Amino acid sequence: MTGLNKVVQSYQDAMAGLVDGMTIISGGFGLCGIPENLIAEIKRKGTKSLTLVSNNCGVDDFGLGVLLPERQIKKIIASYVGENAEFERQMMSGELEVELTPQGTLAEKMRAGGAGIPAFYTATGVGTLVAAGKTERQFNDRDYILEQAITGDFAIIKAWKADRFGNLVYRKTARNFNPMAATAGKITVAEVEELVEPGALDPDEIHTPGIYVNRVIQGTFEKRIEQRTTRASGES
Which keywords does UniProt give here (predicted)? Predict the structure, then answer.
């Protein structure tokens, strides 16, 4: 990687600098738009005591779920955790610290962190366990709770296209949490399906500007489906 060229050639280089105890923000929703190869590299490195921030923790044998068997995750901040039996076991046994966060609040925590906003008020969670221990204020006769923004040592994201400057385009619902996650990491690593020449991306179509991205790597992806529901031929 030289000058403005942010492309790296190996996943080892992509995740260089990751050490035990760091916080990683990961894009993705379920198994859609997840940085599956960057996650696999974290597993290969064996990095432990990680705090993971993601919508969910994948499934038992794919996505962030592959980091659970060797206890690489110390804590996870997520909005949904219902597809992973090992996750459930570790949470119920007290081996894994879990901070459940409403989905919209989690997205805003990432966005605020990337924008340099330390905290924000939201009505989501008022009067529930989510509000426990948090500052409450009233604005225009409505109650709000104060939520702190999130930043990470690394942000790992998946995009459809990139140029060597790190400008990114996501594809349809695979965009999900990736744009917010991309802004909130001290080091943001994007793995992409296609690398294009500078100037090939229409500036009006770029979802994440390269200013937020430190490293780009092109990969191949399994794109596993989390749940497949079908019906017999002829059913209405």
Answer: Transferase
